[in-house]
Automatic annotation (TrEMBL):
InterPro entries: OMPP1/FadL/TodX. This is Long-chain fatty acid transport protein. Keywords: Cell outer membrane, Membrane, Signal, Transmembrane, Transmembrane beta strand. It holds the Pfam family Toluene_X. Belongs to the OmpP1/FadL family. One of its GO terms (cellular component) is cell outer membrane. Residues 1-30 form the signal peptide.
């Protein structure tokens, strides 16, 4: 995934780089491009208490969770039904010479954020009396957004696709009868694709087109601890940022007249960083049946400060300026009997995007999560977890000014203005086996 720069269209390369930046920053069920659906049990209580709970179902949040879980495996699937609406709120384009005109085309986009499925798998086994190892496979960043070729947002976004596979290897240890620790390493593969329209120098001319693709493997780490003290279970954990470098190519077509030299087909690299996560979690057993949960996550979205693009003959740094956020959730588990446990929770997840820098590729907003779920012990070795989450997105504004062909006589600026609303429903199910 890369930009190319040629003569007059040095600015065209920069414009394509800006479009690349958004390819890896489309919203999901958590803030910006993070997908937190990693456990059906967790989904049932709005992801509260995960860092302090035990077993492979909590492995994503704390590697110490498997220190006392025994031999266990879990496979989960999450179905995401998303409904969103993006409306034009006066978007315009300024051509060379200063003429500013409305961006013509479709003034609304219905459901540009596509629904989909997110799977996850984890397995753990003890090694002796005090040690355990685990393996997990997850999709923490996984989504697709699409706009029509005639959309008012086409200069920001047509198609964005991001697919990830995160394979984690974990080791955990029971240090004492009340303290567990764990560490892990992650190998994360990213595959991204972006297409968008490019403006020519007159509204009478058809749009050009940009296509960017890239992929690559990179690595991170995580560490955590759990304290088990009477009725309290307390968890602390940290998951590192991962700096990704994607290798790929770009094709720019359809630019006419003085912009024609910018039509290219080349390769190069683009780098960006995912956020770090710091989690503090507590579970309190009120009695033998009822457990209360709470969790706070500090997410280091400021790591996603820029996209850095390199290609033969040049490069670009595209500022993103995300902000760190704090999320929180509370919930409960209630064991009805030896077979059935029910749970529920509420969570709050603010967006890391800034109001004056939100693009059509990132129509992100603050959100509330309302969850309910249950676990059914189907046999001595098998438990079925389910969860249902309603995600209420607060209304948000799109506000993005972007200059194409900057630094040349062809400099053209789009002023994207829009209104965003929507909601989501997530249905989660998983099977856990003890073996």
């Amino acid at each position: 995934m890369i930009i190319s720069r040629t003569s007059l269209a040095g600015g065209c390369g920069a414009a394509a780089a800006l479009l690349l930046a958004a390819a890896v920053a489309t919203p999901s069920q958590a803030g910006s491009f993070y997908l937190q659906e990693q456990s059906a049990r967790a989904a049932g209580r709005a992801y509260s208490g995960e860092g302090a709970d035990r077993g492979v179902a909590s492995l994503w949040w704390n590697p110490a969770a498997i220190a006392r879980s025994g031999r266990e495996a879990s496979f989960g699937l999450h179905g995401l039904l998303l409904r969103s609406d993006v409306q034009n709120a006066g978007s315009s384009i300024t051509y060379p010479g200063g003429a500013t005109l409305p961006i013509v085309g479709q003034n609304s986009a219905s459901n540009p954020i596509e629904s989909g499925l997110a799977p996850n798998f984890a397995v753990a086994t003890p090694l002796g009396d005090r040690f355990a190892v685990g393996l997990s496979v997850a999709a923490p960043y996984n989504f697709t957004t699409k706009y029509s070729r005639a959309s008012f947002a086409r200069y920001d976004a047509l198609t964005s696709e991001l697919r990830t596979v995160d394979a984690g290897l974990t080791g955990a240890m029971q240090v004492t009868d009340w303290l567990d620790i764990g560490v892990g390493v992650d190998a994360q593969h990213v595959d991204a694709k972006l297409t968008s329209a490019l403006p020519n120098l007159s509204p009478a001319l058809p749009d050009g087109h940009s296509s960017l693709e890239g992929d690559g493997w990179d690595f991170g780490w995580n560490a955590g601890a759990q304290v088990h003290a009477g009725k309290f279970d307390i968890g602390l954990s940290y998951r590192s940022s991962i700096e990704h470098e994607l290798d790929g190519d770009i094709a720019i077509t359809g630019l006419l007249g003085p912009l024609a030299p910018a039509n290219v087909d080349t390769d190069g690299t683009a780098s960006f960083s995912t956020p770090w996560f710091a989690t503090a979690s507590v579970r309190y057993a009120v009695n033998d049946r009822l457990t209360l949960n709470a969790q706070v996550n500090r997410i280091g979205w400021s790591e996603f400060d820029a996209i850095r693009v390199s290609y033969p003959g040049g490069g670009d740094t595209i500022v993103q300026d995300y902000k760190d956020v704090t999320t929180g959730a509370i919930g409960f588990d209630y064991q009805v009997d030896d077979i059935l446990t029910v749970r529920g929770g509420i969570g709050y997840d603010p967006t890391p995007t800034r109001d004056d820098e939100r693009t059509a590729r990132i129509p992100d907003a603050d959100r509330w999560l309302f969850s309910a779920g249950a676990s059914v012990k189907a046999s001595e070795r098998m438990t079925i977890d389910t969860g249902l989450t309603y995600v209420a997105f607060q209304d948000a504004d799109i506000h993005s000014d972007r200059t194409f062909y900057s630094g040349t006589p062809a400099a053209t600026t789009t002023h994207l203005r829009g209104d965003v609303s929507g909601y989501g429903v997530v249905a989660s199910a998983a099977v856990r086996w003890a073996f």
